[in-house]
Amino acid sequence: SPFGLAPRFLLAEGKEGDSTRNVSGSSQASFRFFFFLQVITLSASAQNVTSEGTKGNFLSSSLASGVAVMVAVHVSGGVSGGHLNPAFSLTLCLLAQFPWWKLPVYFLIQLLGAFMGAGTVYVLYYDAIHSYSNGTLRVTGPRETASIFASYPAPYLSIPNGFFDQVLGTGILMVGILAIIDARNKRIPPGLDPLAVGLLVFALSVAMGANCSCAINPARDLGPRLFTYIAGWGPQVFSAGRCWWWVPIAAPMLGATVGTALYQFGVEFHHPADPKEPENPIPEKLELGQEKKMDLPVYVVNTYAEKWTGTGLESYLAGPPPK
């Protein structure tokens, strides 16, 4: 990549000429990612709403969202590349880390995973939802249950303010993720990237969830909204909140673009032109008087990293390249 970003958990993206098998495998992994994400996140929301706060609250729902992201990345990140959000996929396209033609394909797969996850949660909490709502599936008003599945604005929130909310939240999310996965930035110990991203999502949910539930994910919002449309909530899921439905789709994509630009101009372009690879953050245990023979360089095991490092997996295993 000309920007020098090399996500450490983008392990299996391949080149634009990927085989059908590779594309199919990564698409299935992306589907699993969103399915797990939705089942955990929406279950926490359903438990909170249907128990009227006795078995969950805003904090527990936010924590579940962060843990869901972490678990989903661990489950599918090694195959799908950790595409936790269409906005993140757009960011990778902007950074030449992901082919543009895959963007709509992944969005549809993510949408399907979110839709199926919402359906699973509806079946899981079917009795609880209908008991709480007295058998009437409402989008607004007392005992509404549509907010279990998709985001809706608070009564005081205007469309412009809500749009800014989503742009800002997604922009911060993208800046944080890019900082976490940037191999030229301060390193996170291997394997802790998903935890760091999950904590970031948790922090955003806690800090910016009051206005419109901190959607910041087009597929996570639209997939369940489509499910509620056909499951009995009806067309009001699109008309409620002054036709709010399009904001969690358009605003996060703009926020991802803004966040990517901010990271590039604020951080990435200020890296040294010929940087030395950062040292291993976990110090080796050496015996007294023993010299450290070699520092392993930070190379990322993916085909896109090969384009800008000039090396591949073999060089990673063999040690630093010759000067």
Task: Please supply descriptive tags for the structure shown above.
323 residues, mainly alpha, 12 helices, 59% helix, disordered N terminus, disordered C terminus, Aquaporin 10, glycerol channel activity, urea transmembrane transporter activity, membrane, transmembrane
Please tell me about this protein's structure.
This protein has twelve helices and no strands. The protein is an all-alpha fold and 323 residues long. Mean pLDDT is 81; it is low at 1-19 and 278-323. It catalyses: glycerol(in) = glycerol(out); H2O(in) = H2O(out); urea(in) = urea(out). It is found in: Membrane.
Portion of residues in beta strands equals under 5%
General form:
globular
Please bin the fraction of helical residues: 55-70%
Indicate the mean pLDDT. Answer: 81
Q: Extract low-pLDDT stretches.
A: 1-19, 278-323
Number of strands: 0
Q: How would a textbook summarize the main sheet?
A: none
Class by alpha and beta content: mainly alpha
Separation of the first and last Cα atoms: 21 Å
Helical segment count: 12
Organism: Laticauda laticaudata (Blue-ringed sea krait)
InterPro entries: Aquaporin-like, Aquaporin_10, MIP, MIP/Aquaporin, MIP_CS
Subcellular location: Membrane
Family: Belongs to the MIP/aquaporin (TC 1.A.8) family.
